[in-house]
Amino acid sequence: MWVILAASLVGSILCYLRFDNLRLWYASSSLLCLSSFSIVLATGSLDSKYFLLLYLALLVTSLKGKIWLTLTFCAISSFTTYLLSGRGLAIFSDVASLTELTLLPFFTIIAFFVNSAINKPVSELEKRKDERVEEAYAIARYQVAEKEESEIQFFDRQRKLYSLLQLFQKLSKERSSKVVEDSVVYFAREEVKSQVSFVAFNEDGKWRTPRFLGISEVMAKTISQKIEAGIFQKVISSGEIINYKNVEYHTQGKVTTEKKPFDSNSMSLRNLLVVPLQDASGNKPFGVLAVANKLIGAQYDKTDIDYLSLLATEAAITLSNMKLYSKLERSYYETILALAQAIEAKDPYTHGHVSRVEQLSVFICKCIGLDPDSTELIAKAAILHDVGKISIPDSILMKASALTDEEFEIMKTHTSNARNILNNITSLPASVVDIVVHHHERYDGRGYPDRLQGRAIPLGSQIIAVADSFDAMVTDRPYRRGLSFEEAIDRLERGNGTQFSPYIVEKFLQNIGDVEDINALPHYYDC
Ligand SMILES: [Fe+2]
Predict the structure, then answer these.
(1) Is the pLDDT of residue 292 over 80?
(2) Which of 207, 201, 173, 184 shows the shortest CA–CA distance to 313?
(3) Ligand 1 centroid to 511 CA: how many Å?
(4) Residue 415 C-alpha to ligand 1 middle, in angstroms?
(5) How many angstroms separate the alpha carbon of residue 440 from the centre of ligand 1?
(6) What count of Cα atoms within 13 Å lies in the side-chain half-sphere of residue 79?
(7) Which of 6, 187, 255, 359 is 20–30 Å from 346 (CA)?
């Protein structure tokens, strides 16, 4: 019994030295209870002195814990003693010495005060330690949050720049100003997180707002009237960016604070960011790009301004280039038209031939479902198809009778002459020159100038060959009258697969029956 008790006490002391708080309590109390149970099992009873010693040992170990640990221990042990006493203290071998157990409350009170004295400074230290740890955690949490926020902003800027880059690539290939305006307005609204976005142009002092998002047409007009003469005019006059926190304050001297749910018919502008549309030429801005009613935050920040400025600059450059390109195109078209008309004027019998060949070629392009860009190229080639005739002597060009073989050989040179003339026009696509040069090739390979055969002949040349021949057949010449539509169709069918492409002839004949007058067909630029 003494051995068990000694081992229990040693174990308890080791627990006291080794562990702390709850683990100490669990370990020591388990050990002592086990030893008590072992003693009772071995001897059938427990000496109250031993019980007292066990109690003291356990009480001492609890001192290392918090006060509640000591109190809990006291409560449990007192309750246990009470229960044991209730059973007539049969468990204790010497009932007489039970009076010693009355010391238990006394020891408990002493332990309570000792624990309070020991734990109070420890608690204050722990409290200060906890506060410092909490403070360190708070700082760490703030730093992590700050880092996360800056990372989010960084990735958001990266994403925006990437989307801008993609937009710029798309715009650089775009030919339609409507698509450019739509894209810019869409990106402005989405990336600057706004309810409203719009683009407005100043043309000869008059404002035009062709594209807007987030508002109705009626509202767009109202808003434009309200701000274009003042705010927009100020932006294009000064070239500066305007960033208003409250539009009403700047237009009517009052502050609007209402934040209505989105309603495109009744909403008003709160905050507004307007940037000028100015190209790289240094000319005065020709319009503005604007966003209004920021979805997050009260006012547009520097990131919003940078993004919208970048977008506006790219849009301005693209739109200016498109304007210049359009002017160049028109000028180029007028030049080649004048050239073709000059050749045509030399031979009154072919009056209108160039125009009709262009109309018929465009008609065939539609019959075979060709795309607009290819149709445009073929239309240009059709206008220019006989430009090489400018170098053919008038005696051959305007001969009223059929040409001799020698004269025909000279006439055939108009195709290669066309290459020399058109190659000097650098802005003319090479494919147009090819189509012009090969418009007298035959599908069976017996044409000129290069005796190309079948699909080796450019599609545009195959189309112009049919259009050119059909118009020549149905119009009067000095040495013969023009054929009827039916006779011309018969000739085309006879030349199908030898002179002409079977596919083109098939599609042409399927649709030409509905055409009564070639001159009534639309030109490409009328389509
Ligand atoms: Fe020709």
Answers:
(1) yes
(2) 184
(3) 24
(4) 7
(5) 6
(6) 6
(7) 359
Please check the confidence at residue 374 and state whether its pLDDT lies above 80. yes
Q: What spacing in Å lies between the alpha carbon of 427 and ligand 1's midpoint?
A: 23
User: Considering only 56-70, 291-305, 404-418, 487-501, which range has the smallest mean pLDDT?
Assistant: 56-70
* CA pair distance 445, 466, nearest whole angstrom: 15
Structure token digits, residue 267: 């909403």
Report yes or no on 503 lying in a domain. Answer: yes
Q: Tell me, what's the pLDDT at 352?
A: 83
Backbone angles phi, psi at 53, to 5 degrees: -65, -45
Number of domain units in the chain: 3
CA 506 vs. chain centroid, Å, equals 46
Residue 139 lies in a domain: no
Residues 187 and 248 in one domain: yes
The predicted model gives 506-522 an average pLDDT of: 81
Give residue 404 CA to ligand 1 midpoint distance, Å: 17
Question: What is the CA(468)–ligand 1 centre distance, in A?
Answer: 8
My answer on whether 458 and 505 are in the same domain is yes
For residue 515, report the distance from its CA to the centre of ligand 1, in Å: 24
User: How far is Cα 235 from Cα 223, in angstroms, rounded to an integer?
Assistant: 16
| pLDDT higher than threshold 60 for residue 4 | no
**Beta-carbon count within 10 A of 3 CB:** 7
Residue 503 CA to ligand 1 centre (angstroms): 21
Residue 309: pLDDT over 80: yes
Which CATH number belongs to the domain containing residue 244 in this structure? 3.30.450.40
Domain that holds residue 492: 347-526
Q: How many Cβ atoms sit within 10 Å of the Cβ of residue 185? A: 24
**d(CA 475, ligand 1 centre) in Å:** 15
> Do residues 162 and 150 touch, judged by C-beta distance below 8 A?
no
Question: How many CB atoms neighbour CB 166 within 10 A?
Answer: 11
* Beta bridge partner(s), residue 244: 272
Instruction: Determine the distance separating the centroid of ligand 1 and the alpha carbon of 385, expressed in angstroms.
Output: 6
Which CATH number covers residue 472? 1.10.3210.10
Distance 401 CA to ligand 1 centre (A): 17
The angle formed by the CA atoms of residues 365, 370 and 376, to the nearest 5 degrees, is 70
Ligand 1 centroid distance, CA of 386 (Å): 5
- Residue 190: Cβ within 10 Å count: 13
Query: How many angstroms separate the alpha carbon of residue 493 from the centre of ligand 1?
Result: 20
Which of 527, 153, 168 minimizes the C-alpha distance to 315? Answer: 168
Q: If you measure from the C-alpha of residue 387 to the centroid of ligand 1, how many angstroms do you get, rounded to a whole number?
A: 8
Cα dihedral: 347, 352, 358, 360 (round 10): -120
- Interval between CA 327 and ligand 1 midpoint (Å): 29
